[in-house]
Specification:
Elements: E1 12-19, E2 28-33, H1 59-67, E3 75-80, H2 89-98, E4 102-107, H3 112-118, E5 124-128, H4 137-140, H5 145-159, E6 162-169, H6 176-189, E7 193-198, H7 207-210, H8 220-227, E8 232-236
Parallel strand pairs: 2-3, 3-4, 4-5, 5-6, 6-7, 7-8
Antiparallel strand pairs: 1-2
Helix pairs in contact: 3-5
Length: 238
């Protein structure tokens, strides 16, 4: 099945045909978009950071494949990299929505204005919260990145779109006091659904982070404190 939607092609770096974990409660395909300007040490998709001219997978090929999966999967999630880096994202979402799929987005909120424009096209969004907003550079290695993430968080909360905010935690990057302070700040903003993801060495290319002992982190006391702040709280382990 070929679509008649002919806007600028999305720069696709890869695809997962079936996933039960990337969109809550839905069987989804995941489309990975090339490009991300941030340099988080725990990134598990570093090969997607460069914004390459060559596309490993043609966008039309992806659309044709999705057309053959109507009725077999429920949703399509755009991930990355950082999917909102691509000016073709809105058109790509429109093309996929025409096929009848629910639409999800994984984002770090790097481009809050572009995110705000596409939020009405989404059914669900997962926002990575890297650190307390004042300390974002510790994770991203980019100055003022916390202001971008804060603007994105505020836009999502104002949009009414279903969401989860989630933080990958590692003792060398986020001491427990910072994890708690961040959670308290998000709760004050009105966040209802929050996830802590414990760092996993598998897939990470950062030898320094991989060498740090994780035993006892996060503590049971911290988890109790964070869980009490949100109506919906989840801990994800490797």
């Amino acid at each position: 099945m070929r679509t008649a939607f002919r806007l600028k092609a999305l720069n696709v770096g890869g695809m997962t045909p079936f996933s039960a974990t990337d969109y809550p409660g839905q069987l989804a395909a995941v489309i990975f978009v090339q490009g991300c300007p941030w340099r988080c040490g725990y990134c598990h998709n570093p090969h997607l950071k460069p914004r390459l001219g060559a596309r490993p997978i043609a966008w039309q090929q992806v659309l044709d494949w999705l057309g053959r999966r109507v009725g077999l999967i429920d949703a399509v999630v755009f991930s990355g990299g950082e999917p909102s880096i691509d000016p073709a994202l809105a058109g790509a979402i429109g093309a996929v929505r025409k096929l009848g799929f629910d639409i999800g987005l994984h984002t770090a909120g790097i481009y809050p204005k572009r995110l705000a424009e596409i939020l009405p096209l989404l059914d669900w969004v997962g926002l990575d919260i890297k650190a307390p907003f004042a300390h974002y550079e510790r994770i991203t290695q980019i100055a003022a990145s916390g202001a971008q993430a804060l603007a994105a968080a505020e836009a999502i909360l104002a949009s009414g779109v279903n969401y989860e905010f989630r933080t990958t935690i590692h003792p060398a990057l986020l001491p427990e006091a910072d994890v708690l302070a961040q959670a308290q700040g998000l709760a004050r903003m009105g966040v209802q659904n929050y996830v802590l993801q414990i760092f996993r060495a598998q897939g990470s290319g950062d030898a320094a982070l991989n060498s740090v002992a994780m035993a006892g982190y996060p503590s049971a006391q911290l988890l109790r404190q964070v869980a009490q702040l949100f109506p919906h709280f989840t801990l994800r382990r490797a």
